[in-house]
Structure formats: structure tokens, C-alpha cells
Amino acid sequence: MNIKIGFEVHQQIATRRKMYCNCPTNYQDVPPNTNVCPICTGMPGAKPLPPNQRAVEAAVEIALMLGCRVYTNQTIYIQRKHYDYPDLPSGYQRTSLPLAGGGSLLGVRIREIHLEEDPGQYDPLGGNVDYNRSGIPLVEIVTEPDMKSPEEARNFLRALVRVLEYTGKVRPEAGGAMRADVNISLEGGGRVEVKNVNSIKGAYRALRYEVIRQREKLKRGLGVERETRAFLESQMVTVPMRVKETEEDYRYIPDPDIFPLILDEGWVEKIRERMAEPPHLRESRLISEYKITRAAAEVIVSERELADLYEAVAREVDPKLVAIWFRTRLKKVLNYMKLRAADIKFTPAQLAGLLRMVRDRQLTPEQGELVLRELAKHPAEPEKIIARLGLFPIKREELLPIIARVIEENQKAVEDYRSGKEEAINFLTGKVLQLTGRRADPREITRLLIEKIGKK
Amino acid sequence: MAEGTLAKLARIRGGELSAAENVASALERIQELDRRINSFIELNPNALAEAEAVDRKIKRGERVGKLAGLTIGIKSNINVAGLRATCASRTLQNYVSPYDAEVIKRIRAEDGIIIGMNNMDEFACGSSGETSAFGPTDNPAAPGHIPGGSSSGGAAAIAARLCDLCLGTDTGGSIRNPASHCGIVGLKPTYGLVPRQGLIDLGMSLDQIGPLSADVAGTALLLETIAGRSDNECIMLKVDRVNYSELLREKSLKGMRIGISEKFSELTDPAIMKVIDGQIEKLRDLGAEIVEVDLPNLERGLSAYYLIVSVEFFSGTRKFDGRKYGRRIEDVCGEEVLRRILRGRYISQKEYRGKFYQRALQVRTLVRRELLAAFERVDVIVGPTVPKLPHRLGTKITPMEMYAYDYLTVPANLAGICAGVVNAGRVNGIPVGLQVQGRVLGEPEVLRVMQALEAAG
């Protein structure tokens, strides 16, 4: 069955000041209606300040990272989109005409990119409006209906969020800063728009629900009419919105109080030069440049700082070894400590030093992981950490007597192994490892054990 | 003839007249006369205290601003912190401004004393001063007639000498029209010269704040106080402050090329034209060269103007939704305001955009080009301000008859140029103003011509 899915994604841009006034943007950290002024509350007579250049710049950078063509050297009007809702202090929202378009991500075409401003937050139960959020810049990313399943749509959103995070210029998704309108149609049915989607998970659930709902209707010959629905996160269903809300005419006019944007071509090129490499392109480059697996590259580019760290370390030590460590032990340590790559305090040189020792078998991989854990907690030169933890590799003369002793004390396991129970060797290895204070390489222990037991 | 603005200013600065006395006598006159004229909606309770502060500065020999102690009335669509910016409308009747408009900050910085908030046509929608929710304003220069609008209260207050200067606003003639009917001086500045931060919207692409005064010197003085660049606003010309008073020292009109157009007499009451033509002769006598200019599309501006203003007004009034400032505008406003909102809502519909609003913008471009082309040949264009005499207060007239007052004033707004008005004489005892239109940032030439006529008497 043919499914078509498209998105309009809204993401807050992380500027210090609002789009058209100088109020701060940390709306979640302050009491209601404190980050406000006559402009962002739409007081009578208040006029917008010139658009926040940093927001424009961020939108352009996002557009470039999504492979869009930026519409330079032409007038881009800021329009007034009129609608009546308590969270909208002036009765209209300012939204730019497209400032870029024609990009793509994971094969999904990006139709256009706009700049908008966030409305306030309305609490229908209490009847209160908090205008702290009003006027925070938003970038709107509109895709073509190129996704064919909820899963593909989810992958796209994940990739999109990763691109947005790579710019370092949007609010982290965790803060609920991303909102999406989802369009979905099944072959033979009308296009349904779902509003109120606030997360990737929400988008996925709304789409799954819509696929089932629309398929059932079509199966029963009922047809699916074109409509706008709202997603109810708590119940994981979509419900129709009132007709009035969907048939609205926004009566767009160019805002007479703001000069249209004109994006200078030279300025856009400067942004292109210094912008981060988009994650999807970086992933392909890492694979070909460092000859690492896609699975490893995927993990490495998941965060921009992680990829930066990888490339810095891979220049010093074997890139494949580094990739394996990033995918396994480093990822494990970061997850365990609930650290984001951006929070890492140790230097690439320190990590490279550690991996060099592992490569040269001065440390076992297990010991290396212990050092890494320490490194993440209290950054220092790896040698110092090793000395502090007493992690020096055990000498052969010291290891052999321990092996002999373990064989002596665990005759049953030895017999088991000899009679074909392979797993008994792991038990013996564990015993030895314990007695060495985990200083020996388990692979080495196993090898020596088999040597001894076989000899007898 | 009463004392000129500069003479009074000199007396205040010299300690001969205290600012407090000036304010007190203004308040007394308002008390005495305004019950009948109805030019103020609200008075500033701190005016006397503010004047006393200026007097203390003068006494201590400190520097005082260029408006030191002068009393200034403010149109009620401009925010003055602590006073009500009602727009003479029920929807904002209890709206107390929490902030000063940029022009008010500039007036305060020059030690001008805000005396109160002037009456006006509701939301500046009207050319008669009769659409105010606070009742109509009388014309002190022709009692029983409309003072014109929409800066009706300001013009009437100046004509009755209730205060020294007033701030009006002009979207399609709202400073010039009442200045003409009340026999005073007024000027609509070049679009983008005066900051609009704090001015409540009518037609944002046309609105300008400007001065009203008894003499040209007063207009120049107030204009130089409020004009000039502001970084707190997008749509502003990047021009530095200009000292217009200084430029007025040049009294001669020698070498000045002054444009006139046949179009004006086609559209205007012959009795008014007669007075205007007399003034043009005077200009010739003063050494100016009079040049005919062609303005074939001038009258087309009017309908384009009313379409543009209605769409922008509809947009600008969406915030008066009844949730924040008293009652929803459509529920309490007068007929003309409602007419414009509904017109704006109708023609801004998606399916009519190309038909009305875009067309209107095209006509606007046409009118602008025509005027700018004329200004390649002349320094200013002079002619009548209003094509007909003001009607008697309370006369029922149709909306089209009301709009017809604006034929000659809207082109300057559409083109974004400046235009001033100075009294030209009287017809049947009713004042008639001469309009002097200047090019973009042509205020010095406009003021010079106005001053020359004023001096010639």
C-alpha cells in the first residue's frame, strides 16, 4: 500500500534574545511573564526591533546543512499570519517567506525553510497566558511527502534532530523545543494533517495510529477526507479538530513594520565555510576516510563533539581500534555515567595515550576500560591514573604460579574441561583473573591454562 | 497676534516666565475653555511638578532642553507612561500606557511638559473629529464647524491657545487637515524620519507623528526634537538629527523652484482656490520661480489609500480581541472604525488579494513615481490642503463625502514624502491652509516656504 508522509517541523533557535525584542529566552527557568516587554506582549503601539541577526544566521546555517539553496540577494518578506488565539498577543504571528529550499536529508526532499516566532503558552484550564515564550525565534522546516512508512518518518526525524543539534544553535530536543505538524495520506484517501506533535516518539505513534485508522476506513469503503486532526499524546490517538480551525484564512500581509530580509550572498558563503559538516555527510566520509564500519560511524557521528573527538584521536592511533573503542567501551562509559559527548573533559591526547598503551599490550582492554572510566571522572594523564589504580600488567613469572595454583585447587573443573566441557575454561580463567587483581589479560590466561591442562 | 513660540521660550529660559506659571495658565485656560471645545481627553496630573523641576534647573543655571517649560499636548494614540492612550475609543478607554513612546522620551529629554492627551477621531479614522468616543471637538477658529481630523484635539487646542505645541499623527492628512481648518501650522514628516515606537497603529506603512503649532518656528522646534534615527525600530531612515530652526534663518526664497498643478483646482472648491492662488502670487513676489507640474493620477491615490489603510488597520487591531484591553474592538467601536476593519478583513481574503490589496499597492507606486518625478523639476509643490470647507458639527455626511476631504493629502503619505500646512487666509470666515509638499527629507525647504509666507502675513 502506498503511504505518503511529510512534515512541518518547528524548532526553537537558541538565541540569547528574542526575535524582535531584547527579552531573554530562558523561558523555562523563570516565573511566568517575567521575560516580557511591550514588544513581545504586543502592547498597543509597540513596534518590532530589527530581526535578530543570530536567528537569521542560524536558519541559514540549518538550511545549508540540509543541502538547501539559500535565496540570496532578493527580498524575503516577513509576513503577518493572522489568527485569533489567546497565546498570540497581537493576533498575528510573524513568519518569513521561504528563505531557502530544495534540500534533502536521507532522500527526503526539503521543500522550504522559514523563520517564525513562537507564541506564548496558554493554559486553557487556568485561563492564563505566559508570554515568556512569545517571540522566541523558530525555524520551520517543510518536507515533501516523501516518507513511505512511520518507521522511515521516525528515522528521518532522528536524522533531522541530529542535524539541528550539530549546528549547536537550537534548543536541545529534550526541552520539548521541537514541534511538528505531520501530513499523511494513503493511496485512495485524502491528506490528513496531524497537529500538536511534540516529539519523535509522538510523531511515530501518531503516524502508526493514522495508518491503521485510514486503512480501516478505506477497507470498509468509507473514504478518508481531507482534514486536520490533533494528536492526544496521553491517549496515543488523533482526534478531529473543529472545522473552523481548519478552514482558516490567515490573510497574510507583509509586515509593514519590518524591512524584508535580504540575505547577502557573501555572508551566506561565510556561514557555509565555517558551519559544521552535516552528520549524514560526515558519516559517509568517516567510513571511507578511516575504513571503519557503518555501525561504528553511526555511533561516532551521533553527537558532533563525539565525532570531533574521534577524528582527533584517530589521527594519533589506529583509526579502526579507536572506532571499536568509541562504539563499545567509550559509549558504555558515557552511558553509564550519563554523560553527553559535550560534557567530556579529558583531552584527545589523553585518550590517544591510553589507546596506544592498549595497542602495545601494556594494558589489557579491561584495564583500559577502568582507566577510561577514571579518565571521564577525573581527567589526568593515563600514566598517572594507572599508577593511582595500581594497574601495571602482571609479569609472566608472577602469573605462572597463580595458574598452577588455580589448576591445583580446581581439579573438578579441569576434569570437566578435559572431558569436553568448554565453558569450564572460562571458570578457571575467571579464578586466575581474580587472583591477579585483574591485571592479566584474560585471553592470555586462557591460552596459558589450555597449554598447562593440555600438557598434563 | 499672540506671542510667538520662540519669544515665550526665551522668557522661560530667562526666568521671566516660570515653566510652572506657563503650565498653570495653560491648565486654567483648559479649565475655562475646554468644556466647550473638548480638545483634551485627559490631563497630566504631574505637569506642574515636572514644570517646577525645570524651573529649579533654570534657577541653578543648569542646561535646559530646547523645549524647556513649553506645554505640549499629545494625541491619544501615542503612549505616554501613566496616562491613558485611549485612541478615543471605548476599546482602550481604560488603557493606561506602561511605557513612553520614543517621541515622548525625546520630548522629556528636552524638558517639554506633557500637558495632557488630546481628543481625536477614534483610532485616527476620520477627518472631522466627530468619531471620538469622547465626543466631538469644536473648531475654535470657526466655532460650530468641525476642526478637521483626525488630530482634531491637538489642532483645536493650538487654535484656542490651550497649550504651546501638540503632537499629532498623519496617515492620510490627519495633521494637515485639522491644521488647515483651524488656521494653524502642522507638518507631516517624511515617512521614516520620526520614530513610531509607541504610536498605536492605523496604517503602519503610512503613519507618521508630527508637530502642530501656532507658528512655523514651533513646528520646526518640535520636529527637530522628535526626528532622527532610532535603532529601536526597523522602518526608519538612517538620518541624524537636523537643526531645522537653524535652517530657518534663511529667509529668502530666491532661486527656489515651486511647483503648482492644475490638478489641484480641478479637485478644489473655487473659493478655496482663490485664497491659495493669492498665496502663490505672494511666493512669486518673494522671489520664487513658479513651475507647472503634471500630476495626472493624483486623485487615484484616494481609493488606493483606503484599501491599504483598511488592510493594515484590520491587522493592527487584531490585538484588541477583548482579552487584554477592555472589550473587543468590533463590539464597542464606532461606525467608521468598524467599516475599516470589515473592509480590511474582506479585501485581505486569500481570493481577493490580487484584486484589491496588490492593485492598491501598484497604484501607490504609480502615485509615488509621479510625485518623485515632479520633484526632479521643483523643490516643493504648493496647493490647497483640503478641497472643501469643513462642515458644521453634527451634519450627516456619507462615508464617501468624508473620504473626499482627503484627496489632496493622501498622495504625500502614499509617496512617503513630507508636507506642511500654513494658514493662507479665510473663506467665509473659515481658515484655509496652504499645503507645501516636499521631497523625501525635504523638510528644510518646506519649512522655509511656510516661514516666508507666515512672515509675509
UniProtKB/TrEMBL annotation, chain B:
It comes from the Archaea. Keywords: ATP-binding, Ligase, Nucleotide-binding, Protein biosynthesis, Transferase. NCBIfam families: gatA. This is Glutamyl-tRNA(Gln) amidotransferase subunit A. PANTHER family: GLUTAMYL-TRNA(GLN) AMIDOTRANSFERASE SUBUNIT A, MITOCHONDRIAL (PTHR11895:SF7), TRANSAMIDASE (PTHR11895). It catalyses: L-glutamyl-tRNA(Gln) + L-glutamine + ATP + H2O = L-glutaminyl-tRNA(Gln) + L-glutamate + ADP + phosphate + H(+). Heterotrimer of A, B and C subunits. The active site is at K75 (charge relay system), S150 (charge relay system), S174 (acyl-ester intermediate). HAMAP family: GatA (MF_00120). GO terms for cellular component: glutamyl-tRNA(Gln) amidotransferase complex. GO terms for biological process: translation. The keyword Transferase applies. Belongs to the amidase family. GatA subfamily. Its EC number is 6.3.5.7. It comes from Hadarchaeum yellowstonense. GO terms for molecular function: ATP binding; glutaminyl-tRNA synthase (glutamine-hydrolyzing) activity; transferase activity. Allows the formation of correctly charged Gln-tRNA(Gln) through the transamidation of misacylated Glu-tRNA(Gln) in organisms which lack glutaminyl-tRNA synthetase. The reaction takes place in the presence of glutamine and ATP through an activated gamma-phospho-Glu-tRNA(Gln). It is an enzyme of class 6 (ligase). SUPFAM superfamilies: Amidase signature (AS) enzymes. Residues 21-447 form the Amidase domain. InterPro entries: Amidase (IPR000120), Amidase_dom (IPR023631), AS_sf (IPR036928), GatA (IPR004412).
